[in-house]
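DM from R.C. (forwarded with permission)

"hey, sorry to bug you on a friday — could you get me a structure for this? deadline for the figure draft is monday and I only need the backbone to look sensible"
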Amino acid sequence: MTTHANEPTLRDIADKLDRLDTDLGSLKGEVTNLKGEVTNLKGEVTNLKGEVTNLKDNVTHLQENFLHLQENVTQFNDKFTTYQKATQWVVQLAFALIASATVTVVISSVFR
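My reply, with the result:
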């Protein structure tokens, strides 16, 4: 309803204020919901930070293990190289002993 000069009546203003109050209540509820969602997101970010820290610790631990394994492989390679050289010397010594024994047998057979 309006008056003859197109001015709103008191009832029109009261209705409009009621609608604004309802809209304000809805907005307050939405803001409260958004605050709750932001709080939840903050909690999730905190959890993710903790998980990232754990992952960093795990990666550090894996790096340490990898370095330890590299050291072990280097030691094994050194031992293997030493074993290879020793085996070659044993084989050469065995052939030398066989050869000298053969020469000894041949020479002693010839001089008999």
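R.C.: lifesaver. The radius of gyration is 47 Å.
me: no worries. The chain has a mean pLDDT of 92.
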